[in-house]
Amino acid sequence: MEAKMKRSLRYVLLPALVLLSGAITLTQDAIELRFLCFNERNECEVYEDLLARFSQENPGVTVAVDVANGAEIEAQLNERIKSGAAPDIARIADFDAQSGHYLDLRLFLRDAEAFAGGFQAPFLAAMRAGAGDGIHGFPDTAAMVAPFVNVALFDEAGVSLPEAGSDWVKWLSALEEVKAKTGVEYLLAVDNKDHRLVGPAMSLGARYFDEDGALTLADDLGLRAFLQILQQLLTLERAPADTLLGTGAAQDYFTRGETVMYICGSWKVEEVAAQVGGEFDWAIVPNPAGPAGGTGAAKATALVALAATDQPEAVASVLEYLAQPEIYAEFTARTLTIPAQLEVAASPIDYDTESETISAAMNAFAREVPKLQDQAIALDQHPLAAVYYEASNRNLRAYFAGELTLDEALANVKARLAEAAGGG
């Protein structure tokens, strides 16, 4: 409790970070900006607090936060744009949905290069309509994939966790040794859905985009390699079959202590912590590496500026304020999210939680952000991402069930992408 009070006091006393040279010069008229926000956790509440502090540093500029239902945010934003009542700033989950209506901030930011340099380029590129170098906002949270590992089983077996940068060969060898010494049933559990399989495939060399930037699964060798690893684990009964066939949940195997490793995302940390309780120690470990390094996959939410604003300088000042590492880090800590800001991701984050396990897990996910391949960011922000995942899930289930060969399954996925790209 005392630690929480100290953190809260720190937030209140955090010095203002907007430089005087960048403060807005006010005329007689006060400026009120509208910010259309949505919550996944408590993001809008935290933004309201941070923006009240911004207004203290910039008297006469206020930001009214309108909270929308997360499932309806894109529809509401679209409706407001069409009706001529677009907000000045919006928090979005679909980067591409309104990309033709975003404001290019480059003329209004104090240091556009430094602002953009705080984030990986594919996050910013996903907000653009077509080619160009526009800066329209920034990603405020990321959702990452990485392995959950049962540390207690490693300790029981007397096996050391492979160091960061270890490849899949070393990890599978360590998992096998833990199984042999403890009698645990499975080495690895992973669901065949969404982006659990993408990171390992990319690490092993898969290229999802062609030279023109089209999502075609241009080189599937890395994906084949990881799928063959999973198929071998199934054959040897080292992985639960139902998770890859879509009838079981990999998380259940992990929280029951029946598998050493479980691949999933940062959004599951608190749920896993609650389900495991004090039954055993677990941790998030770096993504196993391959010839292309170690990467997970990442999706993000973002703050964007809308082109319809009549106060572009004020909007730019607000976004610069929120993107500052110290302010961004506070937002991350208070919302218990993964940062997409590189400086924040590389530093220890004092998460607002009493659980050391949750804090350590979230920091471990954050440390994976700077390692992301460009395509690991671009894929989940791509307009055809949902098409890829639906086709992949369906065809790979058939592959694991023995209903399709690997060649057939991947050919079907590529054909579906080509059909969707052609408007089919």
Summarize the structure.
With about 425 residues, the chain is α/β, with parallel strands linked by helices.
Secondary-structure map with pairings?
Layout: H1 2-13, E1 31-38, H2 43-57, E2 61-68, H3 73-82, E3 89-92, H4 112-117, H5 121-125, E4 137-150, H6 151-157, H7 168-182, E5 186-190, H8 198-203, E6 207-209, E7 215-219, H9 221-235, H10 241-245, H11 250-255, E8 259-265, H12 269-276, E9 282-284, E10 298-305, H13 312-323, H14 325-335, H15 342-345, H16 356-368, H17 374-381, H18 385-400, H19 406-421
Helix pairs in contact: 2-14, 6-7, 18-19
Give your account of this protein's structure:
- The chain has 424 residues and is an alpha/beta fold.
- The chain has two domains: 2-142 and 299-366, Periplasmic binding protein-like II (D-Maltodextrin-Binding Protein, domain 2), CATH 3.40.190; 144-297 and 373-421, Periplasmic binding protein-like II (D-Maltodextrin-Binding Protein, domain 2).
- It is 45% helix and 15% strand.
- It is built from 19 helices and ten strands.
- It has helices at 2-13, 43-57, 73-82, 112-117, 121-125, 151-157, 168-182, 198-203, 221-235, 241-245, 250-255, 269-276, 312-323, 325-335, 342-345, 356-368, 374-381, 385-400, 406-421, and strands at 31-38, 61-68, 89-92, 137-150, 186-190, 207-209, 215-219, 259-265, 282-284, 298-305.
- The strands form two sheets. Strands 1, 2, 3, 4, 5, 8, 9 and 10 form an eight-stranded mixed sheet that branches. A two-stranded antiparallel sheet has the order 6-7.
- A hairpin with a 5-residue loop joins strand 6 and strand 7 (215-219).
- The longest helix has 16 residues, at 385-400.
- The protein is globular and about 75 Å long.
- The N and C termini lie far apart (57 Å).
